[in-house]
Design brief:
Blueprint: H1 2-8, H2 41-65, H3 72-86, H4 91-112, H5 117-124, H6 132-150, H7 154-160, H8 168-178, H9 183-204, E1 217-219, E2 225-227, H10 232-241, H11 243-268, H12 285-311, H13 313-325, H14 344-360, H15 368-392, H16 399-416, H17 424-457, H18 461-489, H19 501-515, H20 520-536, H21 541-549, H22 552-575, E3 580-582, E4 588-590, H23 593-631, H24 653-674
Antiparallel strand pairs: 1-2, 3-4
Helix pairs in contact: 2-4, 2-18, 2-23, 3-4, 3-8, 3-9, 4-17, 4-18, 5-19, 6-14, 6-15, 6-17, 6-18, 7-17, 8-17, 9-23, 10-22, 10-23, 11-12, 11-21, 11-22, 12-16, 12-20, 12-21, 13-15, 14-15, 15-16, 15-17, 16-17, 16-19, 17-18, 17-19, 18-23, 20-21, 22-23, 23-24
Length: 679
């Protein structure tokens, strides 16, 4: 059956998929009256498995660099290829796989942006507790709430606004699936990247074998420092987000490490400035970054996130009002299969039960007011998120800005009502409101893309909705274990472990509002820098701010990946000139058929690099945790590290060897992108 499904439909998506027409006039790829397998055991099982895998991988990646990558297209390619090879599966089953799998990635994003702040507070106050069950239940409740609030919006945002809201990732995912006859070769490319990424991470990870120095750095005058954390996942992230965002992000890192740190060292003198406790000119570059630059970055990220939100106000207001107007019951018998949602009464009933669970669950220290705030903020930002991703895509969805806004409003309400007693408990309560809201908004944005894919293909919405909930359940069940293991193995929120940039920022925001502990001068400086980037240079300030907030070593390999994407487009554009257009990340890229094909190959290979590297990073963390628990010795896991001593044959040999190996990785990515794929 699968062979017939994938071979008969070689015409691709209907032309109306790209036209601005009423959604009820769009003829889906699979007709509403066609009876095709969709919600099957194998599709659900594979989808839940991939949801867990991509959720764990993105948790590691997000804690490392503050970014997550979509799982939809890699999961769709793997499902299409598997069903095509086995001859058992339909395109709607493949779509169900990617729908469920993508839930893990978005759930991980919402979790790691907020909850790791508890690990940071835990180091200061041992009474703060974050356990496996707590993380998993919070993730589950937030994910399901976001899913439920998205359901009533589907008929308007996906159907009535067809063409006006392109939902770029959702459309691209549909295109991948209808190109099923190429699934085998594309899946092979993805798996090659996954294998190389996994092998590289195992050999290079400083807590793995540590065969070479994967993070070479060079000290420059006045304590400036330049280097790169040369890993497959960062190279892959740079290739996927494109040259413009990568360049802007790198510029932020360069400003911090090549200009601000030397300036503080040069002009700080013997002054002791809070939060540091020693003279500025006696501090190492890492200490300057930790004491001052990260607060500058926090101000920049906070300002950029809020500006992004404010610029979207017309969309927010319209979406919020339409969210109320379009809430109505959706029956399952009087409408076509392709327009059937979960009935509204079930949606509202489940939302009410989840709100009660949020109020009563001991691991969520919020009272009835907190539960109501979660409900209100979640609906508001689910509406915002679902609309914004339709215009700019999931990768550019300002989830951080929405969460910061929710945290600031909640903190102000706590202060106004006298609920701020100065204890860590008050901070935790505010964070929990933001955590559930962040997870809800992340899930809603991702599921909007899934529903767009299903709309184009002719899937059954209510089955996608139930399937996505199963993906949430699967990923949430392991998210607590993943987070605890990564913290025990690497150290979440530490400069030399997993820095968790967004979660650290959230903790700073709450601290600043509730007890005024922020060095506001540096925060205001960061906001001013962000304003100049946004309004004077007309560049995406959020990307710049994230780069400023992170060590430049993370931005460098991302920049390399972005430059490779740019060079690839230039090469194939010269070979087959075509009109230019705006690519991912807002960069102007080549749009000739050849350039587009090679870019997609590179993105698939890069996705494999990210997935393979991140998964091995999680596995190494689990191995370290297991050895430590078994032996009781935190240093026991160091026994398998090969070490870097053999690389020190001459000055800078360690840096040169690490750079040379990374150059070889770049060559493999370049070769994969330029490879001729069989028809």
């Amino acid at each position: 059956m699968a062979e017939a499904e994938f071979e008969v439909r070689k015409g691709g998506l209907p032309p109306e998929a790209y036209e601005r027409i009423p959604g009820d006039r769009y003829p889906p790829y699979v007709a509403p009256g066609e009876n095709m397998a969709e919600f099957t055991f194998k599709a659900v099982g594979l989808g839940v498995l991939l949801s867990i895998v991509f959720g764990a991988a993105n948790a590691y990646l997000g804690l490392r660099v503050g970014l997550t990558v979509s799982a939809s297209i890699p999961a769709a390619v793997m499902a299409v290829a598997l069903f095509k090879v086995t001859g058992r599966g339909t395109i709607l089953e493949a779509n169900m796989v990617q729908t469920i799998a993508s839930a893990g990635e978005s759930l991980a994003g919402g979790v790691i942006f907020t909850l790791p702040a508890l690990f940071i507070w835990q180091r200061e106050d041992p009474t703060v507790v974050l356990d496996v069950v707590q993380v998993s239940v919070i993730a589950l409740l937030g994910g399901l709430l976001g899913m439920l609030f998205m359901i009533p919006l589907r008929s308007y945002l996906i159907v009535r606004e067809h063409g006006a809201l392109p939902y770029p990732e959702g459309t691209a995912c549909a295109e991948v699936q209808v190109a099923g006859e190429q699934g085998g070769s594309k899946a092979a490319l993805l798996m090659q990247g996954l294998g190389i990424g996994a092998l590289y991470q195992a050999l290079a990870n400083g807590r793995g074998l540590g065969v070479w120095n994967a993070a070479p750095a060079v000290s420059l005058p006045r304590k400036a420092e330049f280097g790169g954390d040369f890993t497959p996942e960062l190279l892959g992230v740079g290739f996927i987000i494109g040259p413009q965002i990568a360049a802007v992000m790198f510029a932020g890192g360069a400003l911090g490490w090549l200009f601000l740190i030397p300036a503080i060292d040069l002009w700080g003198g013997t002054n002791v400035v809070y939060p540091a406790t020693v003279p500025m000119n006696t501090m190492a570059s890492g200490d300057i970054w930790n004491s001052y630059i990260r607060y500058v970055g926090a101000g920049a990220v906070g300002f950029a996130g809020i500006v992004t939100l404010v610029k979207s106000l017309p969309t927010i207001v319209e979406s919020f009002s339409l969210g109320f107007k379009n809430i109505s019951a959706s029956g399952t018998s009087a409408v076509p299969r392709t327009q059937q949602d979960i009935p509204f009464v079930i949606v509202m009933g489940m939302a009410a039960l989840i709100t009660i669970a949020i109020w009563l669950f001991p691991g969520l220290p919020v009272d009835l007011l907190g539960a109501v705030l979660i409900l209100v903020f979640s609906f508001f930002f689910v509406t915002v998120s679902s609309r914004i991703v339709g215009l700019i895509g999931t990768s550019s969805n300002p989830i951080s800005g929405m969460t910061i806004a929710a945290l600031i409003l909640t903190s102000l309400i706590w202060v106004a009502l006298g609920l701020n007693d100065g204890s860590t408990t008050a901070k935790v309560s505010v964070l929990m409101v933001g955590a559930v809201v962040c997870i809800s908004a992340a899930l809603a944005g991702d599921h909007s893309q899934d529903l767009k894919t299903g709309f184009l293909l002719g899937a059954t919405p209510r089955l996608q909705q139930w399937g996505n909930m199963l993906g949430v359940v699967g990923a949430a069940a392991v998210m607590g274990v993943v987070l605890i293991v990564l913290n025990e193995s690497y150290g979440i929120g530490t400069a030399d472990g997993l820095p968790a940039p967004q979660a650290t920022l959230m903790s700073l925001v709450i601290d600043g509002v509730l007890d005024g502990s922020l060095p506001w001068g540096f925060v205001i400086l960061g906001a001013a820098i962000s304003a100049v980037v946004e309004f004077v240079f007309k560049q995406p300030a959020l990307a710049f701010a994230v780069g400023l907030y992170l060590p430049v070593s993370l931005s460098t390999p991302i920049m390399v990946g972005g430059l490779m994407r740019w060079a690839l487009g230039r090469k194939w554009d010269r070979a087959a000139p075509a009109s230019a257009g705006s690519g991912a990340g807002g960069a102007v890229e080549a749009r000739s058929p050849e350039a587009t094909e090679k870019r997609e190959q590179g993105v698939l290979y890069a996705s494999g690099l990210i997935a393979g590297s991140a998964l091995v990073g999680v596995l190494i963390g689990g191995l370290i945790y297991g050895v430590t628990q078994f032996t009781g010795d935190p240093a026991a896991s160091d026994s398998w590290i090969v070490g870097e001593g053999w690389t020190h044959f001459f000055p800078y040999s360690s840096e040169l060897i690490g750079t040379a190996v990374f150059a070889g990785l770049c060559m493999l990515l370049w070769r994969a992108a330029n490879k001729h794929m069989p028809e």
